[in-house]
Amino acid sequence: MGTWDLTWGRSNAADHKGLPDEKLGWFFFPEVEGGNGHANDLFASLNGWLVAKDAPKETVDFMKVWLGREIQSKLAEEGLFIPMVKRTTDAVQSQFFKQIAQEVEKSQWIAIAMDQLLGPDTGRIFNDVSADGRVAPTVHAQETSPGSGKTSVNDVPGLHKGSADVWNL
């Protein structure tokens, strides 16, 4: 579940409150002996921004302000998200989100969820194959490869036409 799902779930609960923070919890995936990485590595859906190398200097200046501690702390204080900017944990008001933010502070590595990294067209294929399992990966590869005549996963018969966010970890 992504943290976005908690906010959405609460606003759509019959009482418009949903589960309180004290009834929620989370845990790290158990470490595998001999495996790579660290026990506190994170796999998450993150936001990212691309700036072209010939973008005006003001674009980079804006991104420095937008992604700076001050703005990210204000947004965290409002409960909009858990910022991935170091030293913003104190601004997080929700105790549940604060637990996660503290672990983000300590984490040495954060990987973005594959469906987000791959973009909407390829991300939907990834979700359909991994979560839905209705169509084999080879069928997806054949149906969406160059020269297939398909311009989008929406053109492929049998694919899930919903959100690319089938799951978030």
Please characterize this protein's 3D structure:
The chain is mainly alpha-helical. The protein has 2 domains: 29-112, no CATH class; 118-155, no CATH class. It contains 7 helices and 2 strands, in the order H-E-H-H-H-E-H-H-H. Strands 1-2 form a two-stranded parallel sheet.
Tag the structure with descriptive keywords.
169 residues; mainly alpha; 2 domains; two-stranded parallel ribbon; 7 helices; 2 strands; disordered C terminus
Question: Structural class of the secondary structure composition?
Answer: mainly alpha
In which range does the helix fraction lie? 25-40%
Gyration radius over CA: 19 Å
pLDDT < 50 runs, ≥5 residues: 156-169
Compute the separation of the termini in Å: 5 Å
Total strands: 2
Helix-strand pattern, N to C? Answer: HEHHHEHHH
Q: Given the C-alpha coordinates, what overall shape results?
A: globular
| Tally of individual domains | 2
Largest sheet: 2 strands, parallel
Strand order of the largest sheet: 1-2
Number of helices: 7
Q: Report the portion of residues in β strands.
A: under 5%
Average pLDDT, all residues: 76
